TrEMBL record:
Record organism: Papilio xuthus (Asian swallowtail butterfly)
Protein name as annotated: NADH dehydrogenase [ubiquinone] 1 beta subcomplex subunit 5, mitochondrial
Alphabetic keyword roster: Electron transport, Membrane, Mitochondrion, Mitochondrion inner membrane, Respiratory chain, Transit peptide, Transmembrane, Transmembrane helix, Transport, Ubiquinone
Pfam families attached to this UniProt entry: NDUF_B5 (PF09781)
Function per UniProt: Accessory subunit of the mitochondrial membrane respiratory chain NADH dehydrogenase (Complex I), that is believed not to be involved in catalysis. Complex I functions in the transfer of electrons from NADH to the respiratory chain. The immediate electron acceptor for the enzyme is believed to be ubiquinone.
Any one cellular-component term (Gene Ontology): mitochondrial inner membrane
Localization per Swiss-Prot or TrEMBL: Mitochondrion inner membrane
UniProt key word Acetylation: no
Main location (coarse class): mitochondrion
Top-rank taxon, per record: Eukaryota
Quaternary data: Complex I is composed of 45 different subunits.
Parts of the chain that traverse the membrane: 61-83
Family, as annotated: Belongs to the complex I NDUFB5 subunit family.
Length: 189
């Protein structure tokens, strides 16, 4: 598989090669495909950018496309030819159909069963999300009401009030007293 683009290159060179037809004028053969140089064989290779990366890309594209396309095509062909779509039949009284059994095609049933979530599970998750949002709305409304009552009555410190730590106040007062005792009352500015 990797050599396909190499084969294409070799065929492409032969297919698109410039084949010029020699023509004859006054008993002299002229050919446009040959270049005659007067330097007797000193030929210079023309510099051109490398096409290695392009050929490598084509090789990898062909390789991975075939790795993916051949098995997927075989699976789809097998399911459509040998398994086929589901037939509608009456449901027995003591049987509850599973959620994936409502799909007609076998590949769709496989995806619904093993890849997607159960629709009932999705519905319950969504209902839980709605309930949580409703609880948050109720809590926010209660918080607004509490803040409103606290501001009306002004009888309680707010719940976000942080009392001052007395330790630092005592240390600050002690330092101030020491400075006062050391310098006294008659400090001249």
């Amino acid at each position: 598989m990797v050599s396909w683009s190499g084969l294409g290159r070799s065929f492409g060179i032969n297919l698109f090669k410039n084949k010029s037809i020699p023509f004859k004028g006054q008993n002299v053969n002229f050919s446009t495909s040959k270049i005659f140089n007067g330097d007797h064989g000193h030929k210079v290779m023309a510099l051109q950018p490398s096409r290695w990366q392009w050929h490598k890309f084509k090789d990898m594209l062909h390789y991975y496309a075939m790795i993916g396309l051949i098995p997927v095509t075989a699976i789809i062909f097998y399911t459509n030819v040998f398994i086929g779509p589901a037939q509608l039949e009456p449901i027995p009284k003591d049987y509850t159909p599973k959620y994936w059994e409502y799909h007609r095609h076998p590949i769709t049933r496989f995806i619904a069963r093993y890849i997607h979530n159960d629709p009932q599970q999705d519905y319950e998750k969504f209902m839980h999300f709605i309930d949580e949002e409703h609880q948050k709305i109720k809590l926010r409304a209660l918080e607004k009401e509490i803040i409103k009552k606290m501001s009306e009555r002004q009888d309680y410190q707010a719940y976000y009030y942080r009392p001052m730590v007395n330790k630092y106040l005592r240390i600050n007062k002690q330092v101030g007293d020491e400075i006062y005792n050391r310098l006294g009352d008659d400090i001249k500015d």
